[in-house]
Amino acid sequence: MSRKPAKTLIESETQDAGPPAVMRLHRAVADGGARSPLSLTLEAGASHFLTGDAGSGKTAILEMVALARPPARGGLELFERDAATIRPENRFALRRRIGVVFQDLRLIDDMSAFDNIALAARAAGRDMARYGNEINELLSWVGLGRRLDDLARDFDDEGRRRLAVARAVINRPELILADEPAGAAGLSILKLLSDLNRAGTTVLIATRDRELAEKSGAGHTHLAGSAR
Amino acid sequence: MSPTTPYRTAPALLPGVRNRGFRLTLIMALLSFVAAVEIMAVAAAIQALRDWPGRLAGSVTLSTPGHGLETADAAAARAAEILSRDPRVAKAWILEPSPDDAVAARIMGGTAAGPDNAPPRLVGVASKAGAEITAAAVLSLMGAQGVSAVADDHGWWSGPLERAALLAAAAAAALLLVLLALVAVLTGWGVRGAFARNRPRVTLLLHLGATDKTLLAPIRGRLTGAAILGTTLGILVAFGLGAILVWSPAAAIWLTAQGVLVPPLDVLDLEATLAWLPAAALIAVLAAGVAAKAALKSLNSGAPS
């Protein structure tokens, strides 16, 4: 899956040259997450897995990178910018460069598949006239092309996960964060993320399935321990 | 399914807010009704209180009990003649005696009566415009001509009236400030409630890259609109009731007969209520903005800082 493996802590401290980093964690500990500090650098186009047991802090780290949770310690850089120096009202600019597949998906159940994705485009300040056809194409790509008008609540688990991936992609993010994206749906969701990575998007996936991460050939960081 | 979507409209960012302004509208209508009634009543009361000192100003009443061999009638006639020659006096005239004067004289005893035991006569004095004559000046004139008299420029009445008007205005202003504070608190409460009800959606939209402005606009706009609608409704109801009292004296008379304290309303008093609308709207807009920003800041505070 991986085209460019993520750097480990030692590498990031000894190698300064190379492509621009999409994300850089420096001994970061997410507020409310696991105590162990994590250093990780993702270069543009990289694919990386965060593995660990339940409570190991995977979700907290992804939320920290998504600017939804502050770091308790350490530093976070996104797209070569120190996240701590960005004023709260200006974080939207970074968030628009990040697509998130939430662990609980966070779809709007009483909205159609089309509108769930349109909401993301609208939130990013885009015009309906420009993203309408993109949504059609995206839903076809995730295999839901014939279910544009079906309500999100009417999809099965796999359909909802596909919809969540499509929503995460609509604004053409440079970094995709996926928290347990496969669920019971299996490899089909990971295949979509792999396609995105092949197209140049940086992907960071959190999963409890260490074996899956090792088989993928992508970069892999295992988080030991549990949250406070 | 059509590959294009010409019939679609963009989904509402926060659809749940659309119908949630009803309670705010109702509360604002009640508040505005109270404010408008208060403005009308106080404006009428202040107008009445200020009207009387105006009527009393520029006039002096002279009481001439007579002195020595000069009767009250003769003293009054001489006083009127002296005053008529003064350039500051527009008119000086002897007031007709009334049965009340005799009653008052008996009550007041001999001090109020002249040598013929008759009650003192009263002389009205009206100043010329721009050349007001005071009670002291009148007494000075009388003293110079040997006329025994007591003068009253009605300051005893107009002072308390003016103070009452001032007090009524201050009390009204304080109450209006309290009502405006309530408008601010209630609008802020409505905005915070809207954010609380939509918290998951707002948080999701923030993660999807929505700006503060994008999120603020619908909530602030809708609740400000609800507040203005309520304010307008409250004022309209009060205005309508006031208009009935202004243009239908029978209604005012009937209400007075029922023991209702009906102020002497004028069209100007009705128009004064319209000042409440921009004041309340401005406060509602400001309060909604402050509350929305605070709520959004709270939701956005999870990120690195």
What would you note in describing this structure?
The complex is a heterodimer of chains A (228) and B (305). In chain A, 33% of the residues lie in helices and 23% in strands. Chain A contains 8 helices and 9 strands. About 4% of the residues of chain A have low confidence. Chain B has 305 residues and is of the alpha+beta class. At the A-B interface, helix 3, helix 4 and helix 5 of A face helix 6 of B.
Question: What are the SSEs and their pairings?
Answer:
The complex is a heterodimer of chains A (228) and B (305).
Chain A: H1 9-14, E1 21-30, E2 38-43, E3 47-52, H2 58-65, E4 71-78, E5 81-82, H3 92-95, E6 98-101, H4 113-123, H5 128-141, H6 157-169, E7 175-179, H7 187-198, E8 202-207, H8 210-216, E9 219-223
Parallel strand pairs in A: 3-8, 3-9, 6-7, 7-8
Antiparallel strand pairs in A: 1-2, 1-4, 4-5
Helix pairs in contact in A: 4-5, 4-6, 5-6
Chain B: H1 22-56, E1 59-64, H2 72-84, E2 89-94, H3 99-108, E3 121-127, H4 135-145, E4 150-152, H5 155-197, H6 199-207, H7 212-247, H8 249-257, H9 267-272, H10 276-300
Antiparallel strand pairs in B: 1-3, 1-4, 2-3
List the main descriptive attributes of the protein structure presented here:
heterodimer, A: 228 residues, alpha/beta, 33% helix, B: 305 residues, alpha+beta, 10 helices, 65% helix, elongated
Q: Give the uncertain stretches of chain A in residue-range form.
A: 7-15
Largest beta-sheet details of chain B: 4 strands, antiparallel
Main sheet overview of chain A: 5 strands, parallel
The helix tally of chain B amounts to: 10
Helix and strand content put the structural class of chain B at alpha+beta
Strand content of chain A: 15-25%
What is the total tally of β strands of chain A?
Answer: 9
End-to-end span of chain B in angstroms?
A: 46 Å
Low-confidence stretches of chain B: 1-5
**Could you give the order of the helices and strands of chain B?**
HEHEHEHEHHHHHH
Which geometry of chain A do the CA atoms define? globular
Please identify the oligomeric state: heterodimer
Q: What pair of chains forms the biggest interface?
A: A-B, 43 and 30 residues
Order of strands in the sheet with most strands of chain B: 2-3-1-4
Q: Look at the helices and sheets of chain A and give the structural class.
A: alpha/beta
What is the CA-atom radius of gyration of chain A, in angstroms?
17 Å
Approximate strand percentage of chain B: 5-15%
Order of helices and strands of chain A: HEEEHEEHEHHHEHEHE
